[in-house]
Here is the input.
Amino acid sequence: MNDSGERKGSPLAIILSRNPYLYTVRRLVGAARSMEWNADVVDPFLASVGIGAASHRLVVGGKQPKPDVVINRLSSLSCEYSVQVLAEFERGGALTINPAHPTFEFRHKFSALCALESAGIPIPETRLVRSGQNLNRAILELGGPPVVLKYLRGTQGIGVIWCESFDAAASITESLNLIQYDVMLQRHYRGAKELDLRVLVLGGKAIAAVNRVSGGSDFRSNFHRGGKLYKYDLSDDIAGLAVKAASVLGLNFAGVDIILGDEGPIVLEVNLSPGFEGMDKAHGCDIARHVLEWAKDKIGG
Here is the structure.
């Protein structure tokens, strides 16, 4: 890292992540270095941010890094502190793959769905419920059980629960509310078994897609839950829907989950820090390289 803040020689890419051993982080570092960039992984918890009369200041390990590009691998579970570190990199002039504002605002799945619906994007029927008195009515409005219960913030299928009955939904919701975990209920769409897509969007283009099939008895089709991923050739309509969803949320790099509902394609959710191990394997490609090439074009490096 450059203590003086001057940018000399090769561009510097920082991957903002709490875990340097993740597949995506390792691939991004490798892609940057293969392009003769400098690359560092920064744990946001090890950074300190200060403001004052002179200037904003961000310090990591006693140094003040001045990256050209910051690739934030902050999931929906990231705390506000991590987002403030990302925002400080932005204020310092770095290109951030996904900016701090949408990263913070749309970690909350219900907020993201509200923004998508306001833009005319089809979303699943969803209810946000805190009182048990409203639970049965909400389930009936969703077409009755089974329903899908989700944590408002979760990743890789964590916090997605299948509820076969009114009693099961009530028991789980009450338990989670007791420990201050807010949840939302979503209608179950049978067509999701026929078409459950993850579409990667980068810089306003749909660059790759896979059809996800759940593994074994687990209804979740996430790669990290044992789901199988198969290369999928996108139609213009589905590609356009994914691009629009990412754009509405202000994301340059996103994983858009689309299912085939009873009334047509539905955007299930938009992941602001998408993994791509399964995508790499299904397509035989190098998504990390695509991300760095896009960043290179943006900074003119």
About this structure: The longest strand covers residues 205-213. DSSP finds nine helices and 15 strands in the chain. The radius of gyration is 20 Å.
